[in-house]
Amino acid sequence: MSVLLSIVLPVHGVERFLPRCLDSILGGPDDGRFELIAVDDLSPDRCGEILDEYAALDPRLRVLHLAENQGLGGAREAGLAEASGRYVWFVDSDDWLPEGSLDAITTELERELDREGEGAAPADILLTGFTHVYPDDSTEPNPWRHLLTDSPLVAGGTLREHPALLRAVMSVWNKVFRRDFLHGLGVAFGRGFYEDISVTYPALVAARRMRYLDRSCYYYRRGRPGAITSTASPKHADAFAQYDAIFAFLDRHGLDASDPLRTLVFERTLKQALTVYDSPGLVPVELRKEFFRRTSEHFARHRPAGYRFPGGASGLQYRLAARGSRLAYDELRRGGRLPRELKRGARAVAPAVRRGVRSSARFTAYNAFRRLPLDEHLAVYAAYWHRGYGCNPAAIYEKAKELAPRIRGVWVVENRAQAAGLPAGVPYVILNTPAYLKAMATAKYFVNNVNFPHTMVKRPGTVHVQTQHGTPLKMMGMDLRDHPVAADGMDFDRLREAVSRWDYLVSPNPHTSEHFARAFPGRYEMLDTGYPRNDRLANTTPAEVAAMRERFGLPEGRTAVLYAPTHREGQGSFLPLDVAELARRLGPEFTLLVRAHYFLAGGPGDLVAGEDAAEIQDVSKHPAVEDLYLAADVLVTDYSSMMFDFAVLDRPLVVYAPDWEEYQEVRGVYFDLFAERPGAVTTDLEGLTRALLSGDSEPDSRARFRERFCPWDDGGAAERVVRRVFPADPS
């Protein structure tokens, strides 16, 4: 029987991992369908001996001992030259195969060859699913699976039929190639880092038929010391030689500037180069300028004629890369948000360039501060992109002062105006000042409800606490990959990098723990504590409620309605509700407290209802939403996470959701809000008016809602977080 599948296994410096890899392969069916060719690339450890020991016991394994180290690409080429199978699979020797994978793959390959016997073309490439495995043995399913399931590639297709494949991982280890097809491409694995892309891109472009097997057939080890994705090295610049080889192949095969596949390949390679440049700790500091220059050269050399920049943040990044404007690019990425002048158009880059000069000096200062020892008693706090003091970080800060007084807390704010709004006595640093850079470089603890800038490196020994800022009804994180409008150009690779820094993720309820574990896959510890910010609501007193009502001028007997809609992706309008008309319908026995989402800086605008109408107060700028909860008798919202917090008070809730069907489609949701309602639900103004005038109309619905979403809201969440994260006070 001829060999169906040749597995090529390059081996170098993986003595710890090699036995598991070999066992997973050779433990497969001994039916003559596969051979294993292991290439000892002059490994400095016992790998060569281990291979010979296994080969002496199993004739399916052949070992090549190279006289000179060839690198991963050269070792693969040496193994490929010895392969005799109809198909070839390149497996990395620090990874391993799940049980049953080989049988599943060879069965699929036999089906493809049966097609050949019937006069049809067999698959040139079989794509497989895989699983990421981290050093603590936690796992993450294939992050790109959604691009392939239900695609034409399941039955068999080409890259032109499913170009979204180019957004998936370009590594070679999840692709099984027909050997004659691979030889016919006239390509070779490159030398140095990123050696496989000079094969995978041409193969995907040229394949006449590809199949996707929706099964995890490979365990890919992530975060291993020495892996190129976590190693600082000048060899990251090897990618540019691989890019040149890719485009030389496209030229030979007639993919000119008018071919949309060429544009997709160009943008994918450019994004990879910029991702390497952006990733902290990969390109050595002294080589970053040269790496960016080569990225700009890559843009100029391979830019398709007539190329049009994409919109949004990616387009602006590409424009700056094309111009070679490294300092402006760094400023854009370091701030995490677009400079205002860049938002206005690509030509308005000069102010950003000037700021980039200053930011380069800041980056140098930050790296100098990183040489200082960690301050074991310093914690840095921030909330909502440095907008001020609040949410879960503020509650944790207050409780840490009580339970861990040795830990000094300092808040990051964006400017002096925000600093002036901090509570008296709260220490602070202003963004991008020397004091800020030193704090970020030396603090032991970091607490935030969003991510700190990615340019702030996570030093060994530091502790990052991510609190997020709401129970999710709408989809979050990696779950947004199938909702492009809501994702709005989200960089999912950057998100994974950010999540990798988290040591703890605070969860408000079991529902959130379940969905955040999937939306933010990582190795952090989930803190099932409840939300610290809700302690105030759980512990409130009648006196505090009365004080808040007095603060907002709410007389006894007046019904206060807090209206707080959420942000809607892709829509310019702020309010889906005619607030003035609602005020006229409710009458003077009501007060409407209207709070705009913080993404909408303009607020709700002029809200005048006239005589005999409810009073309307714009409370969008009020710093503490908890004050508003305490003052309000009822909350009206749509899809905001405020409903889960307000439910702690056990007061009436009304959901006004006129665009529920559209919102589900655009944003994606985790449960049916109409079926698991927190109270009355309505889709029109008439229904909303009736619900508010009728008082507490659905207490049973609210009780069920509270049982599901508020089980941990007992007033002790902040204490549970502080006692888990910070060292206990010795007294």
UniProtKB/TrEMBL annotation:
Database matches in CDD domains: Glyco_tranf_GTA_type
Lipid bilayer topology: Peripheral membrane protein
Stretches assigned to the Glycosyltransferase 2-like domain: 6-111
InterPro entries assigned: Glycerophosphate_synth (IPR007554), Glyco_trans_2-like (IPR001173), Nucleotide-diphossugar_trans (IPR029044), TagF_C (IPR043148), TagF_N (IPR043149), Teichoic_Acid_Biosynth (IPR051612)
Pfam families assigned to the protein according to its UniProt record, in alphabetical order: Glycos_transf_2, Glyphos_transf
Key words of the record: Cell membrane, Membrane, Teichoic acid biosynthesis, Transferase
UniProt keyword DNA damage present: no
Subcellular localization, as worded in the UniProt entry: Cell membrane
Main location: membrane
Family: Belongs to the CDP-glycerol glycerophosphotransferase family.
PANTHER family for this protein: TEICHOIC ACID GLYCEROL-PHOSPHATE PRIMASE, TEICHOIC ACID GLYCEROL-PHOSPHATE TRANSFERASE
Name of this chain's protein: Bifunctional glycosyltransferase family 2 protein/CDP-glycerol:glycerophosphate glycerophosphotransferase
Gene source species: Kitasatospora herbaricolor
